[in-house]
Amino acid sequence: VRAGMPLSKEYTEENLQLVGDGCCNLQKQIEIAQLFGIPVVVALNIFK
């Protein structure tokens, strides 16, 4: 994302593959936090 530039399609169009890839990343980050005893909260927002 760059100031003054239009958003790329990854930010404006639905792409379930990217969501799936992000969920795998999120799961790993949760596992790492739990290894250190850090409580984890995940919140999802829907913008329409």
TrEMBL record:
The keyword Membrane does not apply. Transmembrane segments: none annotated. GO terms for molecular function: ATP binding; formate-tetrahydrofolate ligase activity. The keyword Ligase applies. GO terms for biological process: one-carbon metabolic process. Coiled coil: none annotated. It comes from the Eukaryota. InterPro entries: Formate_THF_ligase (IPR000559), P-loop_NTPase (IPR027417). Keywords: ATP-binding, Ligase, Nucleotide-binding, One-carbon metabolism. This is Uncharacterized protein.
